[in-house]
Design brief:
The protein is of the alpha/beta class. The protein has 10 helices and 8 strands. The protein has helices spanning 11-25, 32-46, 53-68, 78-95, 108-125, 138-143, 184-192, 207-211, 220-233, 243-259; strands at 72-76, 99-101, 147-148, 154-155, 165-166, 176-180, 196-200, 214-216.
């Protein structure tokens, strides 16, 4: 993709789209990844391509619940790695929690590529300055983030076939799971196991959004950047969360924006 001027109103969206295209060509993602990304883009148009106040509240709640968790884990699929991998690693470093690669179309080649990509990102991030407001040995914090998923030695009860495969050290033992770009059946199974499931989903009508403990209705790269900020601040405790209220607010935004066309 040629140079896009900073003045272009959709520069960030176009760059994200190209990252998905390139990653698919390189074998990191299944072909359906572009379909999923396009579906998300459609909802982001209707949301105004910005993080709403209600989404910010949800991100703060997610940060609080991850901080309060005993065994948190961040589960990522291919699209999340490509679009927000760096900030996901930064969040994991702040939380001192593992990242598990868990993908729908699981192949040995794709798992190897995604795990290797995250390990390389860790090395690069360990050499940068620590995020604003964070204190400690940043290099050590980043390099201590475990990347799980290559070994599928765990199972998610209530699911059959490949979707039940997970890491025994990650999702299987976690009490709180952040799962950006989730799929509904796994979200439901994890909730039924008594786990808190925190999701990022641009579609407030999806099964995932409705089943989750907390839903962030926002684009993953924007949400991950704010999640890092709120996690470092660590100034909020988990609340009695009304997830349906957040979903309804997102629907109201979509309805309002639709009427202005």
């Amino acid at each position: 993709m040629g140079n896009i001027p900073d003045s272009h109103p959709r520069k960030a969206s176009l760059l994200s789209r190209q990252r998905i295209v390139d990653a698919t060509k390189d074998g990191f993602l299944a072909d359906s990844a572009m379909i999923a990304h396009g579906r998300g883009e459609a909802f982001d148009y209707l949301l105004g391509e910005k993080t709403s106040d209600s989404a910010k509240l949800a991100i703060k709640e997610v940060a609080a619940r991850l901080i309060a968790a005993k065994k948190p884990v961040i589960s990522v699929n291919g699209n999340t790695v490509v679009l927000a991998g760096k900030n996901i690693i930064r969040v994991a470093a702040v939380l001192n929690c593992p990242i598990e690669v868990n993908i729908y179309y699981r192949t040995e080649d794709r798992m190897e590529k995604l795990n290797s990509f995250l390990e390389k990102q860790k090395e690069l991030l360990s050499q940068e300055n620590s995020p604003e407001g964070w204190k400690g040995d940043w290099s050590s914090a980043v390099m201590s983030v475990k990347i799980l998923g290559k070994v599928g030695d765990g199972r998610i009860e209530g699911l059959d076939g490949p979707r039940s495969v997970c890491s025994a050290e990650g999702i299987e033992r976690a009490d709180v799971i952040l799962v950006p770009l989730e799929d509904g059946d796994r979200c439901e199974a994890l909730v039924n196991l008594g786990k808190q499931v925190l999701v990022v989903d641009l579609n407030p009508l999806s099964r995932t959004a409705k089943m989750a403990t907390v839903t962030i209705v926002d684009e993953i790269s924007r949400a991950a950047e704010l999640l890092l900020e709120y996690t470092i601040k660590n100034d909020q405790m988990p609340t009695k969360w009304n997830n349906n209220g957040i979903l309804n607010e997102a629907l109201e935004i979509i309805a309002t924006n639709s009427r202005t066309i």
